[in-house]
Amino acid sequence: xxxxxxxxxxxxxxxxxxxxxxxxxxxxxxxxxxxxxxxxxxxxxxxxxxxxxxxxxxxxxxxxxxxxxxxxxxxxxxxxxxxxxxxxxxxxxxxxxxxxxxxxxxxxxxxxxxxxxxxxxxxxxxxxxxxxxxxxxxxxxxxxxxxxxxxxxxxxxxxxxxxxxxxxxxxxxxxxxxxxxxxxxxxxxxxxxxxxxxxxxxxxxxxxxxxxxxxxxxxxxxxxxxxxxxxxxxxxxxxxxxxxxxxxxxxxxxxxxxxxxxxxxxxxxxxxxxxxxxxxxxxxxxxxxxxxxxxxxxxxxxxxxxxxxxxxxxxxxxxxxxxxxxxxxxxxxxxxxxxxxxxxxxxxxxxxxxxxx
Length: 357
Hints:
Strand 10 and strand 11 form a beta hairpin. The chain is mainly beta. The strands form eight sheets. It has a four-stranded antiparallel β-sheet with strand order 2-3-4-5, with no helix packed on it. A four-stranded antiparallel β-sheet has the order 6-7-8-9, with no helix packed on it. The chain has one domain (8-355): Neuraminidase (6 Propeller), CATH 2.120.10. Mean pLDDT is 85; it is low at 7-48. It has helices spanning 8-16, 24-28, 39-42, 55-70; strands spanning 76-82, 91-97, 103-108, 117-120, 126-130, 138-143, 149-153, 158-162, 168-173, 187-192, 198-202, 208-212, 218-222, 224-225, 231-232, 235-240, 246-250, 255-259, 265-270, 274-280, 286-291, 301-306, 313-317, 325-326, 332-333, 349-355.
């Protein structure tokens, strides 16, 4: 039997903590009054007061801010898409795009009778949804080369593969959860090899990524906790390039590392602060979603585009990217944990960036 859905307060409070963890005893304590925050920018996220940083953390985040200030904006249009769905859309954890340009969102509804997986057309009109009752903490969503939909639960540490119509095809239980009482202690993301194998990042309590075959059988795993090459401090995102390089977001170390398909360390780029997401674009460039530590995600969050062969940072977008996807047409889908983006408090919008025409 699957774990019960955790309350939005517990989930969102955990997201605003440095590690992504919150113990149930802490969650049960009376909540302190929330700090004043822009309700449009914060959406349904819990407001977070600035956290006192160590000198090392402060310098690291200051370096990230300096890089953001020195980097030019990318020539992309910021587009707020109003969602037309027959039910409320709660905190959106991730978004992706299929080959037809449809947008898939993975959100965290309060009501277990509401589907977490939602398919929209490019203009935000509802097409279909599914997945009610399957998840404790919806976290990541991806579309494989055949058009199937994969989702990741960060509490139960499960990976589901669905047909585009919502038929469940594969169910992978990642297992080996060090502390099942923690709301966030499981897998985070998935990416796909050309041979049908899948690679899962398992970073909230573990520090590894795992290879499975097409049927969901475990092949091997790599990684350990730490700050060295090939070690991780919260593996949050994973993406595979056309030339078979795995890019892994090492969130709390503020860096992206890359590996071959056998887990051999090949390189890294440090940005500073927190690095939530890493996504390979069709042109081979890599986008990363960063955030300077110590303040809410609506502030000091930057998406960088860089060349992994040279390390050159090409440009930036200003947005928080929790789990990012780059569409086949170059659309950037940040997948931020947010709801309200536009100025209308009665509507729900999602944010994307599209190439200027």
